[in-house]
Amino acid sequence: MNPSVLRIATRQSALALWQAEHVAALLRATHPNLQVTLVPMTTRGDEILDQPLATIGGKGLFLKELEVAMLEDRADLAVHSLKDVPATLEPGFNLPAILPRADAADAFVSNEHADLAALPSGARVGTSSLRRQTQLRSLRPDLQLLDLRGNVGTRLGKLDSGAYDAIILACAGLERLGLASRIRARLTAPDWLPAPGQAAIAIEARDERPAVGALLKALDDPDTRLTITAERAMNHALGGSCTVPVGAWCVLGEHGLHLRGLVGDAASGRLLQAEAQSPIDQAGALGQRVADALLAQGAGELLQR
Fold first, then answer.
1. pLDDT tens track, the chain, 305 positions
2. Beta-strand relationship, 106-109 and 35-41
């Protein structure tokens, strides 16, 4: 029997709440008799802001409390930015719905400079992402890269206070919060790769609640799931977490799937890159093939660092 009420566990940041409200609205529209409520909570990833994520356990810290809420029957589902979801889910959980992907580019944000090339030598650029740091160092080894944590508003506030000359954020997050005007330039493939799953919203539920999963399945976007499957398969084959700089970008075209991947070293800016194509029914194998190509170039050594 289908539940009549669904409770959504969500982080309390403005972006997380926007995403949860977006999912709630879609569920109400798809299932008119369904009541949908939000269960906002703070995660460890939100609480520890004075250390880089890579040193305190990675982006999985944004999920743990939400998963516990589901296990303790305080929530029926959780809404995440898919790039924050580890390549391997905790046992007992699944992703019954992945929403259509938004703009997956990264955003160059600055009050004084038009784009990355316009930054003067030694300019201070803020980002907590090792993937972004690696690509910045590869393109502009002369820049001063500084850690930057906190929600979108906090990061923009630090830029506006003069602590940074520029910061790198996700275009999708800025657009969802009505802040697209802050984007000075878009960093896009093939010259710059996003995180696996970037700009897609994922809905997580428990294996033991198939009726919940059935309600959520109506929101799933098959094309986005295909491309995300390839990106996450590559990330999984590389042992992916946010403690290593990994980028991935898969597109669906008339000839099938095309996946680009990169592994890098944030300290030196060294980048390894690979790409491959496959039919649409081989998304997982495509991810494995690109990961194997990266490993053949020496990605294992970078990943172990």
1. 678 999 999 999 999 999 999 999 999 999 999 999 999 997 665 555 454 544 444 455 668 889 999 999 999 999 999 999 998 899 999 999 999 999 999 999 999 999 999 999 999 999 989 999 999 999 999 999 999 988 899 999 999 999 999 999 999 999 999 999 999 999 999 999 999 999 999 999 999 999 999 999 999 999 999 999 999 999 999 986 556 799 999 999 999 999 999 999 988 889 999 999 999 999 999 999 999 999 999 999 888 87
2. unpaired
**Residues involved in catalysis:** 84
Using a cut of 0.85, tell me whether the model's pTM lies above it.
yes
C-beta separation of 263 from 239 below 8 A: no
What are the Cα distances from residue 220, in Å, to 98, 144, 204, 217, 224? 5, 41, 12, 5, 8
The H or E element spanning position 160 is: helix 152-160
